[in-house]
Specification:
The protein is mainly β and 383 residues long. It has a domain of 248 residues. It is built from 2 helices and 24 strands. The strands form 8 sheets. Strands 9-8-15-16-22-21 form a 6-stranded mixed sheet, with no helix packed on it. Strand 17 and strand 18 form a beta hairpin. The longest helix has 17 residues. It starts with 5 loop residues before the first helix and ends in a 7-residue tail after the last strand.
């Protein structure tokens, strides 16, 4: 045991009292000592790193059943000769596809026989065969695409014209995108829901209710790629995954091996020269791949018979909204895309997108459309 002298003990006590007081407390109230709050350092927010835009050129030559990769917006980056050997599964015959792309300083020229790079006629919506077998075009389409499109102040919609083929785009397998519909509603058409091709009087240029082919799957026979043949001419009426991957999920991580981290590839070009992409784009805000969402929606109230019409409007009780072109309207900001189903991506490139809902692709174009996308119906001559 250690004993301190009285003098030393007093000095020790004074030292203890001084130390406690310096901490804001007292010798008799140690519980009053205040401990400073720890400083919280906020976790820094790190923006997602923008993946490199995939502008690796697609392979030339045989593109049978091939999905693409290139996202370059210039049509000249797709110059080459492409071919495919596919099957018409309805008739069990082989078909040859070819597409040639050339370019000069201002334009690209697409020449194709309009046969795709994938099988045709499988898993049709109605379970029936096409009205005619798919044939190659012996004359070949010649479509001119501006390399450097210039946006206009007003969008140009693709309009029906008598005796003409009015195209919404050409895909990189040589098949045209034709959003136009020859199907309509008329009470004298003897089909389910009175929707069909009808006569020229019933479904001509002035029909009141044009059917959206991809939304009338019990009436319009489309294959698994939303395509069919009319007088042998195969064309698309909606989106498909023939050239780019389409997953069930609405969002994907950039690490997926299904879609490039920078988004879906260019699958074709619109009449104004802007590219048409697949379904996915890179969302710089979330760092994810997202399916582009259309900004078109349907009215919800009862249809109104147009003034001067000779037939009554089909009721929404028997014909749900969405069956007809006239059911839809553009609502700015509802989705990711503008009225032409386009937007500017994270890389600063404007283009149109495939969507799984109406309008599926570009109904209109933001640039000046080239006149070559309006062809006389004689431009297709089947083999």
């Amino acid at each position: 045991m250690i004993f301190l002298s009285t003098k030393k003990a007093v000095l020790v006590c004074i030292a203890i009292i001084f130390m406690v007081s310096a901490c804001g407390g007292s010798a008799t109230s140690p519980e009053a000592i205040i401990v400073p709050e720890p400083i919280v350092v906020p976790t820094p927010i790190i923006d997602p790193v923008l993946p490199d835009n995939n502008i690796t050129k697609n392979i030339e030559g045989d593109i049978s059943y091939l999905r693409l990769t290139n996202r370059h917006p210039d049509c000249a980056e797709y110059v080459g000769n492409y071919l495919a050997n596919i099957v018409d599964v309805q008739n069990n015959v082989l078909l040859d596809s070819y597409l040639t792309v050339t370019a000069n300083s201002t334009h690209c020229i697409f020449s194709s026989n309009n046969v795709p790079n994938h099988n045709v006629g499988g898993n049709t919506t109605t379970g029936k065969d096409f009205a005619s077998a798919v044939k190659g075009n012996t004359k070949a389409y010649l479509l001119t695409i501006p390399r450097f499109p210039v946006p206009q102040s007003v969008a140009t919609y693709v309009q029906k014209q008598a005796g003409m083929l009015t195209l919404n785009g050409i895909l990189l397998n040589g098949v045209d995108l034709d959003m136009d519909s020859a199907f309509c509603y008329h009470p004298d058409i003897n089909t389910p829901l009175n929707i069909g091709l009808g006569t020229r009087t019933q479904c001509g240029l002035n029909a009141d209710w044009y059917a959206v082919p991809a939304n009338n799957t019990e009436t319009v026979t489309l294959d698994e790629f939303s395509g069919h043949a009319f007088d042998g001419r195969y064309h698309y009426h909606g989106d498909n995954d023939g050239l780019s991957h389409l997953a069930v999920e609405g969002t994907l991580l950039p690490t997926t091996d299904e879609v490039d981290p920078s988004g879906s590839p260019v699958v074709g070009f619109a009449p104004d020269g802007y590219p048409i992409y697949g379904h996915y784009f890179y969302d710089a805000g979330t760092g994810e791949l997202r399916k582009a969402k259309s900004s078109w929606t349907t009215y919800s109230d009862e249809r109104v018979t147009p003034q001067g019409s000779s037939i009554d409007a089909p009721s929404i009780n028997t014909h749900i909204r969405g069956l007809f072109v006239e059911d839809w309207f553009y609502q700015a900001g509802l989705g990711d895309l503008d009225e032409c189903n386009g937007m500017t991506d994270a890389y600063g490139n404007y283009g149109y997108y495939y969507t799984e809902t109406y309008p599926f692709g570009p109904l209109c174009v933001k640039g000046q459309p080239d006149a070559s996308f309006t062809l006389d119906s004689s431009a297709f001559v089947g083999e």
